[in-house]
Design goal:
Mean pLDDT: 86
Structural class: mainly alpha
Strand order of the largest sheet: 1-2
Number of domains: 1
Shape: globular
Low-confidence stretches: none
Amino acid sequence: MILDGFEVNLSNEIKDKTGNPPKITRGNQYLVWKYLKNPNETNWPRELKLANQLLVYCDLDFWADLDLDFKLNSLAFFLTEDGKRKLRIEYRKKNCDLTPETERQK
């Protein structure tokens, strides 16, 4: 599927509450569906807010390529020391700028 101009894919195993593939229209929704263990049972407003924060640092292309060996209880993992360490390693691989977009333009 194409979101915000980027090709993104979800595992065929990911289903919504009705057993169908989820309808994803925004990048923040994609992050929730891709990384969370139980996206159907999550606090969506909280996770969407976290996803928006994460999308400030790198575009959807970075997140589409980032694969974890495990599923998360919350996207807040990426704000922990372990999560930040994982992201730093991946940022170096992808040469991603760690400065939020709003500060890059100054």
